[in-house]
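Quick one:
INPUT:
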């Protein structure tokens, strides 16, 4: 008779699905690769069908894809139970997978990670960079436990607003417009425009729409560091969030644009399921530091 499905087997499935391989999953879980392999094989015997296509990278089978969301929920629930049980002996514990846009990871996350480590040394935060549109999907699918969302509407209960991030023109320091206090987007028409596809396109197009100015990017670039490098090399100009300042070489500057547009940033757990105690504890600390009211 086939054995019962257990949390260890589901945890192995989630780890392989997330990392793309048995070796990486073993590193993630802190166990041997053979232990991961045996756990997945035992799960497949219990279910009577494969859940993974072995390859590079490993991919879930149709059955594996169907059970993966439930496996994530079971693993998260088991972690929450362990966390609740240990809160009486020294505070929060566990691992929180947190996703955020690249500029947020560069500018805001180092300070938050430092504060969290000091306040909750038993909590491990694993950071994932993603594009704006991906983050909500990751959060609700259970791929991550918390995320910094852009322009979240409506705000999930308990979410913590992190503030607004305005759009700025990115120029070389020797550009004729670099010394201005602000730049109207129409003034950028004489330059080749480099458009980041990382999530801010909507805000950039909104600025041009409000200005009544034609928008025709010359290059579309996915990686933000590549875009900054091209501006640095004199290939063109761009518009990006103010938080990108920490990523710039000395030869580049950010100048506020007109019409002014901004994005709002919100730190939150998932809207569709209970938050783990570790997520709730970390966000409570951010909320208290910001002087925001604690939700009822």
């Amino acid at each position: 008779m086939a054995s019962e499905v257990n949390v260890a087997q589901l945890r192995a499935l989630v780890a392989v699905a997330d990392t793309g391989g048995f070796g990486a999953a073993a590193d993630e879980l802190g166990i041997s690769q053979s232990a991961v392999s045996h756990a997945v094989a035992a799960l497949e015997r219990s279910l009577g069908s494969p859940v993974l296509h072995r390859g590079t990278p490993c991919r879930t089978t149709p059955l594996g894809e169907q059970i993966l969301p439930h496996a994530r929920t079971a693993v998260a629930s088991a972690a929450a139970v362990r966390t609740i049980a240990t809160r009486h002996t020294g505070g929060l514990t566990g691992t929180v997978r947190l996703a955020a846009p690249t500029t947020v990871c560069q500018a805001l996350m180092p300070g938050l990670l430092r504060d969290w480590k000091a306040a909750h040394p038993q909590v491990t935060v694993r950071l994932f960079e993603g594009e704006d549109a991906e983050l909500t999907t990751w959060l609700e699918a259970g791929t991550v436990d918390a995320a910094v969302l852009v322009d979240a509407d409506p705000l999930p209960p308990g979410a913590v607003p992190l503030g607004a991030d305005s759009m700025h023109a990115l120029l070389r320091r020797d550009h004729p417009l670099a010394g201005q206090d602000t730049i109207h987007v129409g003034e950028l028409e004489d330059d080749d425009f480099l458009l980041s596809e990382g999530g801010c396109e909507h805000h950039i197009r909104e600025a041009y729409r409000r200005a009544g100015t034609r928008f025709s990017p010359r290059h579309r670039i996915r990686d933000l560091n590549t875009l900054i490098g091209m501006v640095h090399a004199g290939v063109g100009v761009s518009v990006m969030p103010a938080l990108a300042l920490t990523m710039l070489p000395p030869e580049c500057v950010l100048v506020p644009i007109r019409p002014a547009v901004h994005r709002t940033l919100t730190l939150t757990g998932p809207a569709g399921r209970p938050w783990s105690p570790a997520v709730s504890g970390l966000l409570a600390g951010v909320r208290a530091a910001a002087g925001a009211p604690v939700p009822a």
